[in-house]
Amino acid sequence: MSDESPPALRLKGVRKRFPGANQDAVQALDLAIPRGAIVSLIGPSGCGKTTTLRMINRLIEPTGGRIELEGTDVTDVDATELRRGIGYVIQQVGLFPHRTIGANIGTVPRALGWDKRRIAERTDELVDLVGLERDMLPRYPDQLSGGQQQRVGVARALAADPPVLLMDEPFGAVDPIVRGRLQDELLALQERVHKTIVLVTHDLDEALKLSDRIALLNVGGVLEQFASPDELLRAPASSFVERFIGGGRSMRRLGLTTLAAVTPHRGSVVSVDATPQQARAAMDEFRTDWVGLTDDDDRFLGWVARASVADGVALDTLERHEPAATVTPDDTLATALETIMNSRTLVAVVREGERFLGVVTLEQIHAELGALRDAGDAAA
Amino acid sequence: MSALVHAVDALRVPLPLAQGVTENNPIIRWSYLTEQSDRIIQALVQHVQLTVGAVSIGLALSMVLAGIGLRYRWTMGPITGTTAVLYTIPSVAFFGVLVPYTGSSATTALIPLVCFTLLILVTNIVDGFRAVPRPVKEAAEGMGLSPTSRVLTVELPIATPYIINGLRIATVTTVGLVTVAAIIGYGGLGRLILDGLRRGFWTPLTIGAALSILLAIVLDLAFFLLGRALTPWSRSVRTGRSGDHGEAGDDADAGSDPAGAARPVTAGA
After folding, report:
1. Rounded to whole angstroms, how far apart are CA atoms A74 and A53?
2. Closest Cα to residue A47, out of A198, A199, A221?
């Protein structure tokens, strides 16, 4: 989603007034959806987020304005043709109960007149892609769980490889555990397919987790802010945005930032070959009663207590405590915080595989939050 | 008109059958089956023809009426109202009233028979199409299926079990009503029954009634089997998830573990 490439989807002054309504459901909405990005439409009920989504594939015809898909006005194309080129996933999935899973997935390719072999190959490919078993293909939707049905829904939407995917509260009908898993799967899937995804949700945490950019709409389809999740939390553009996000902004930001963004420092850790003096120096420097030991391959061996470090006694002969608090660079700051709180040493060891990268402390997380806050203040 | 008067006269005379089954007039005289086999077969064939004809025409008309009603909502009331009124007309009167216009013909027999199927068929077809879940319709539209293919390949198959049910009821009802058309000379097996009544002779009455019942059962079974053949998905093993479309579903092995999948995830039930 580089900024120089033209957006995959552009809304220009899009307006919708439903027959008989005395005000616009959506009024003059401008939005540029970058290619390959996941963009969430979020807002209170009545904000026109679903209406906006459904105008993109013309399930609802706009009253005014333009919607351009790859530069072409969607109203210039036959609605049926248009929709075949746009994946569509809805909350209740809407699988065809009378068709097998395989036939459901092959719906659009069949409408496009693909030959049977090509459809079969594509179906197999998609089943693998969304993490289902091929032996499910001859089954009927009623035989699948909600989570499995939703995966089939995504596979069906991707069948003809459309560049754009519209998702209307796709994970709203499954329980929280399955929802979390499906969200992770969507992100993993996106890594592979790089679709332009427009997602409607009412769940801020879902939007924060999945989106590259979030469009926060107010009642009547007024765009309050269009920004990255981090920016939305850091610098709410209006008091409405602030109220919508509510409390816990800092904690939510911790959940967005991974440890990769924080430079772990070596902390009170020395090589197992170091001298007791060096170990004490490290503990003094970081004011700890513990020192960590690493071997020649940079593997973390464990902690030893200050009390047990004595002159003339090699460090590798001392009693070691395995680190209970270990995180990876892919973990979020929120996870690191949780891990540190549960550790006796009040530090978390950052490891990538077996390799020791450093430690992360409460102070570091606090400093990171401070940086986030300062940046927010600066922007505000 | 004469046939009608004749038939009604026949019904008015004191019936010798009141004497019940006697040695000379047994419930069935088996030799009749061979002696009158042509007549019996002819009656049966006519019965089948009238039934199939009436139900086929009724189905075609009902599809059109249901289509209009579903498309233009305001017409639904008048359509069901009219078909309901037609349904309430006493069958004997309906057949009789047409004789001055269409004579003693197959048309006269078919018109009431067709009319009697409409209420059942229209309501079942409408119910069937209304049973198509909204998300299914929305998905079909959102994926770019044309209106025609949405109706033919998505909505019609889902409505099929309802339509088959309507056909079963309409057919069984029609098989019974065809016998009444005997009063205008077009009753299929009803003519055997009427003949038996007129002559105070049990055998044709018994044969006519028995074959009529048998025909109803056979046709009903045929539609039942047709329905099963057309709706393989409704026979698939359910795993505790009926058509409620994505109520919180457990993700673990729903396909192979009915007990596990049936476990309620949310409170209730």
Report:
1. 13
2. A221
Rounded to whole angstroms, the Cα distance separating A35 from A271 reads 48
Nearest to A80 among B144, B231, B254 (CB): B144
User: Lowest mean pLDDT: which of A87-101, A179-193, B19-33?
Assistant: B19-33
DSSP state of B152: I
CB atoms closer than 10 angstroms to residue B225: 11
Domains of chain B: 44-227 (1.10.3720.10)
CB distance B249–A145 less than 8 Å? yes
ipTM of the complex model: 0.78
The predicted structure's pLDDT at residue B171: 97
pLDDT at position A148 is 93
Residues A229 and B175: their CA atoms lie apart, in Å, by: 69
Residue type, A273: D
Question: What per-residue string of b and e applies to A134-172 under the rule 16 or more CB within 10 Å gives b?
Answer: eebbebbbbbbbbbbbbbbbbbbbbbbebbbbbbbbbbb
Alpha-carbon dihedral sign for residues B14, B19, B20, B24 = negative
Characterise A201 by phi-psi region: left (phi > 0), alpha (psi -120 to 50), beta (else).
beta
CA geometry: angle B122, B123, B128, nearest 5 deg: 100
A214: three-class secondary structure by DSSP: strand
A130 vs A110: CA distance, rounded Å = 20
Taking the C-alpha atoms of residue B170 and residue B60, their distance in angstroms, rounded to an integer, is: 13
State the Cα–Cα distance between residues A119 and A103, nearest whole angstrom: 9
Backbone angles phi, psi at B162, to 5 degrees: -70, -45
User: Does A81 touch chain B if contact means CB atoms closer than 8 Å?
Assistant: yes
Three-state secondary-structure class, residue B172: helix
The DSSP code for A308 is G
Cβ contact B142–A80 (<8 Å)? no
Three-state secondary structure call for residue A164? strand
Instruction: For B85-94, write each residue's pLDDT tens digit.
Output: 999 999 999 9
H helix and E strand count, chain B? 12, 0
Q: Give the Cα separation of A127 and A106 in Å (integer).
A: 11
Question: Taking a contact as any Cβ pair under 8 Å apart, which residues of chain A between 20 and 59 contact chain B?
Answer: 57, 59
**Euclidean distance between CA atoms B134 and B136, whole angstroms:** 5
CB contact under 8 A, A88 and B133: no
- Take residue B64 and report the two structure tokens written for it: 């059109």
Q: Kindly tell me the burial class for residue B3, based on how many C-beta atoms sit within 10 Å of its own C-beta (0-12, 13-18, 19 or more).
A: middle
Confidence of residue A334 (pLDDT cuts 50, 70, 90): confident
Higher pLDDT, B7 or B34: B34
Residue A368 near residue A262, CB atoms below 8 Å = yes
Structure tokens at A333: 């700051």
B34-58: pLDDT as tens digits: 999 999 999 999 999 999 999 999 9
Name every chain B residue with its beta carbon within 8 A of the beta carbon of A99: 233
Q: Name the DSSP class of A142.
A: G
Alpha-carbon distance B140 to nearest alpha carbon in chain A (angstroms): 8
Residues A82, A57: contact at Cβ < 8 Å? Answer: yes
Distance between CA atoms of residues B267 and A254, nearest Å = 33
- Residue at token pair 């068709």: A99
